Every structure is written in structure tokens, then in C-alpha cells.
Amino acid sequence: MKYVDEYRDAESVRLLSEKIKSIITRNWNIMEICGGQTHTILKYKIEELLPPQILLIHGPGCPVCVTPIEMIDKAILLASRPDIILVSYGDMLRVPGTDSNLLEAKSKGGNVKMIYSPLDAVKIAEQNPDKKIVFFGVGFETTAPANAFTIFEAERRGLKNYFMLCSHVLVPPAIECLLKSGKNSIHGILTAGHVCTVMGYEEYIPLAEKYKTPMVVTGFEPVDILSGLLMVINQLENGNCFIENQYGRAVRKEGNIHSKKIISDVFEITDRNWRGIGVIPQSGLKIKSKYSHYDAETVFNISVTGSDEPDICIAGEILQGLKKPGDCPAFRKECKPEIPLGAPMVSSEGACSAYYRYTK
Amino acid sequence: MCLALPGKVISIDESNPNLKTAKVNFNGVVKDVTAQWIDDLKIGDYVIVHVGFALNKIDEKEAIETLRIINEMVDSTKRESGE
Amino acid sequence: MNENANYMGSVCPISRTEYDRILMAHGGGGTLTNQLIQKIFISQFGNEVLDVLHDSAMFKVESKRLAFTTDSYVVNPVFFPGGNIGELAVYGTVNDLAMAGAIPIYLSVSFILEEGFEIETLWQIVVAMKNASRKANVKIVTGDTKVVDKGKGDGIYINTSGIGIIPDDVNINPHNAKPGDLIILSGKIAEHGIAILSARDGLEFESEILSDLAPLNALVSVMLNESKNIHVLRDPTRGGLASTLNEIATQSNVGIRIYEDKIPIAGNVKAACEIFGLDPLYIANEGKLVAFIDPGNAESVLNKMQLQEFGKDASIIGEVTDKNPQTVVMKTAIGTNRIIDMISGEQLPRIC
Hints:
Largest interface: A-B, 54 and 41 residues
Structural class of chain A: alpha/beta
Number of strands of chain A: 11
Shape of chain C: globular
Structural class of chain C: alpha+beta
Strand order of the largest sheet of chain C: 11-13-10-14-12-15-16
Mean pLDDT of chain C: 88
Radius of gyration of chain A: 20 Å
Largest sheet of chain C: 7 strands, mixed
Radius of gyration of chain C: 20 Å
Oligomer: heterotrimer
């Protein structure tokens, strides 16, 4: 596959690994933000290729993992109504809510449909005029334009039975929150390549300067991860802290203007509760009031009582990179992929699930 | 997050100005993709696709440049290690 | 109500705090399926024939050893690229017999039909089953039909059971894998699962990917003619190659090492997996087998396989070791080593 295979080349990987080992002189902690990058790192065992001085910290870039528990509960409530079809991306279906998850709701008779593309949710609304279709719109900035587009399309097609349960999150405020907290010592960051494909990377320039932390926009294949690491280690070894772009083939500095416009047309910034982390101000997107007739939270009167994770679950600390899954007393015992206590054990690139599968 | 894959545009449908779509070939698998946000899209272009939407065109020059920079970085390693 | 119901003196071993209903994942071929089989079925039915837990039960009847197996087929859609539920019902059961080294002879077939199912469609399925049984050289010798109310079925469900004769000098058993054995995979993986996916709503795509549905008994005969030192045979159906290798590693108490660059997969199948974020190692196959063979015989068996219709892409993908027992380790395409675990539940397409 063009633009994929070249970035999985074993020889390039080996040489990049050698180069990193040759320039490193001290310990560095590097966080990769994106869950897709975590997945690659664990699936290809990239840590085997790194010198012992590098500690990789897995960041909170898994929108499935950080969707607040009350949102899952709301989705389950909506799915259980006979007049509603709840439409969702596959990875959300097993995330535990307070008592249950969407797959279990389906087994109990709830109407839950899985889709790959959000436009399929609009199609389902057209095909089922006697039902209300609620699309569970989650994701980071990468998915926001596609999710927003469904509202445009619903409007254009004159659909009155399409709604979105919106739980979008934004990356830069999360990075700022982690760097500000000072709880983990993150020296350098690999930022999320596909988020930046949409948004560009201008908003990271002041962050890198303010927190004196070098940041590299990085792709998702092994060669991308290793060259991103090489670039960030290079900066650290030379005392630099600016934003660089490793993923130039997909990312422009300004991002994609059309996708950014549709995000700002349909959504506005709001405070958002990140599961396991808490409320991060101005870190989420909600549907603008001019589209409130598509907003499931406005249209359906659903209230859920707030809930916490089981006490034993340390998902929050894992998502903030403070602990690793192996540090959790429930890991591999009370908490496994088939009986997950927290979200990072469910999503295939949540740190807990990835550790469970790829280590022993 | 954000599983996205590069694929080659094999046909473009601009009949609906609000919904530009393209057929994109991923190594023999062809999917209909919404390409509403891609300017100057041509057959033969590569686009990066997430949940059925094209996010951006792949910049061939940048792709070559990335690999060239990598080769440069590792060539210096080879020279240092006497390969 | 007690957390664990007490029925006729037995306590249900799966507590209500774990599950009180069957989930799709219980049919996924991974850890939940195994938990259900072990805790509910084996704990009640267990005996020395069942406890071998192979694809077929094997036992002597007078002087002949027989293999006996059963399987139910609920695939949706009923017609998919490369095949249909009827062919699957014949080949799936024939293959389970072949994995015991048996020569399949007779099948039973039982239909559960939903009220309103089109007879023309049933006819097409039955004709396909007749053709499949001819190709596989088996006879369908007994059957049953039931109809359920509209809304209580999914169109058509089929169960087939099969009997085969195990030649005297054949000894295939999932507990027989030995350190040093080489592992042969008979061809390209993940085709059946992806073909089914491509026909499902919302996940359609245009491609040439057809199910690899095929009878494997002729291939197995050729392999056994070449060498009797084949220790294990298995067809990696639901749960994929990874689940099958894990099961064998556990049952034989050995380590398994495989090489990613030796696993054959078609370019378009790989691309489909990438699009949906699925790992091909966990995707179902319906016309493939893995064979664990004495290293001295592997090359010659491989050469014979590659001359057969359903073995032309066969390759040696790894070996059995005495290191890391009950663990499957894969050398990745970039040269690192990764543990290939059992899947739990179904793989779902992802956005992340």
C-alpha cells in the first residue's frame, strides 16, 4: 500500500533506532498523545528498539476512553427507548457505563446499530422515518468535521428525525492541562497526526514555548513514530522547544480550512468532563444553539445520576500518564477485556487493553 | 485516535455541489468517500480517509522529503558506524 | 434472589455479576466462548471422549475409529461473496472431520426455517449443498426441518453433523504438538471474514474479495499420504489464526513462534482490515488449515500441498518451541517480538 508500506520498512526502523541510541545522553520522558500511536507502539513493540533512557508515557488520546461515563449512560437510556435507534461507532459499544454498556443494552432489546461512517447515520434516518435516530457523536478534532457534516446533511435533506448526542473533545487543552499539572514530568510530546491533519499545528506553537516542551506532529506507522521520537530527542539534547512536523505528507501548518470552518459552523467550545481526569475547561465541543433541534441532550429530557469508576480502577492516572496498567491491582484479575472496569481496557488502543494483549 | 488510511482517487462525482464524493481505491478495495473539503481534487491524487471522509490530500513532495530526511539522518548513522 | 441460582443441587458457575444473558461475544470463538464451554457444558457433560476437545470426537467402534462432529450455521447474510450458508454447512463439518485426519463419509443436516423464508432461496441453498457434498465426496444421509414463527428466527439456521473414518495409522490430536514441529498454513488468511463484512450494511465496499470457503479433506489426504508425522491439524475459523494457535499452544502446553512476513495475506484483504482497524490474525477463515509437522517432513508435505487446489499458497509460518509455554509470539515485520493473545469477544471496526 503506497504511503503505508514505506513507513513500515524494517531496515529504516532499525537505522532510526540506531540513530536514537547514538544521540541520546540522558533520560527523557516522551508522551505520545494519540491512542492510534499507542496502538502502533505496543503492536510493533517499538519500546524494544529504544534505548533504556527513553520512557514512553501513553497519553489520553483515546476519545473512546475519555468519553464521560454519564454520556455512555445517556446513550444507553436513549437506546432503550422503543422509538429511538441509537447509532454508534464500533469502538463505543463495549465501553462500560455505570451498570451496563451499549452491547448489553442491545442484547436486552435496545435498538443499537453500528456504523463506520457518520453519513450512514443520516441514511438510517432517511430509511426509518417513523423512528428517531440518535447518533453518538464522539471523537477528537479528526472526527469532528465528519460528525458536524451530518447535521448539515440532515438540514439539507429536511430530516426531522435525526439527532446527535455530542461528546467531542479537543487535544490542545488536554495537553495544557497535563503540562500545567506538573504531576508527570513530560519532557517532549508526539502530537496527534490526524488531529493536526484537520486543525493544523499553529495552536501548539505557544504551548511548546510556554511550557518549554518540544512537540513533534507525528504519524502512525513505525517509521513515523521512530522519526518523530528522533526529532523530539534531538531537540531535547540541544535544549530546544519548538513544534516540528514529521507528518508533512498529511499535515499542513494551517490544517484544512474547510473542515475547520464546518467545525466552527456547527460546534462551539465548552467545558468537558474527561473520564478519569475530570473537567478540563474549554476542552470540548457542543452543538451550537442554532442547531439545538439536532441536539439530543436538548431534545430528549434525559438525566442520569453522575457516577464514578469502581474505586479500584486507576484509569484516570493511566490516561494522564502517571501510572502504567501493570501498576493497577485489578489488571488481569478483576479487570480484563471481557470484564473491563474502565474504558482503557475496552478500546483497542486504550493503554490497558493494549498492554493486556501485547505483554504477558 | 483517528484511524485514517491513504487511498488513490479513481473517480470523482461533483454532480451534487453540497456533497462531492470520490471512489477511492485502497489497494484493490474501493470505497465511496466524501471529498467535500478537498480543493482541486484530481483522479490519481492520494487522499487520507477517516470514517469515510477525505481529510486532506497526500502531498507527494512532502512524502518524498520525509523519506529523504530519514535517509539523511540514518546515512549519518551508517557513516558513524562505518557501514 | 441469590446471586448464583441453585438448580437441582448445582450452582451456575458463571455468576450474575458477570453475565446474566448470552452476548454476541459468547459466540466469538475467543475467551468468552471458551468460558461458556468449560463452565457450563463441559462441567456437566464431561467424559473422556469429550474432554479431548478437538474439532471432532474420536472413538473406536468395533475395530474402526470414527470421528464425529456437529456444527450450526447462522451466518448473515445468507448469500455472501464466494458462497452461501448451505456450502458453509457442508464444508465446515467436512473440514472438522478432516482435521481429525478422518475421511468424511456421512452428514446429517437439520434446518430451522423462519416462517416467511422464500422457498426459492431455500432451493438455491439446497442445490448448493448438493454440489458441495459432491465436491467433498460425502453423502447427506439424514436430516430434520423445523419452522419457527416469523420474527423468532433469522431466515434460516442449519446444523450439520458428520461422521468420518480415521485410518489406523493416523494419530492427530491437539495435545500432540512438540517442540521442533514446524507450522504450515495452507493459504491466505482473513478472506471469509472480510467477504462477510463487505456484504454487511454500512460496511460495504467494492472488491474482489471472496470467501475462501472450501473442502479440505482431499488436501489432508494428500498430506497424510506424504507423511504420517503430522501431529496437529486445525482449521482457523472464528477467532482466526491467532485463536487457533493459542488453543493448540494451551492444549499441547508448548510455545509457538510465528513470523509476520511469512503469513500469506492478499493485498486487498490487508487493505480492508486497515480501513476498519481489524487485525487479520483474528478474522475467520473457512478454507484454510494449520498443520504441525515433524521438521523432517515439513518441506515435502509443503511441496505436495502447493500442487493442490486449496494449498497453492501454503507456507511455513513458524515453529513450536519449549520456551514460553502456552504463549504465541510473533516476530513482527519490523523485527520486534509481540505476544499474540486470545481475543475476547468480537473484533469491532474502530475509528481510533
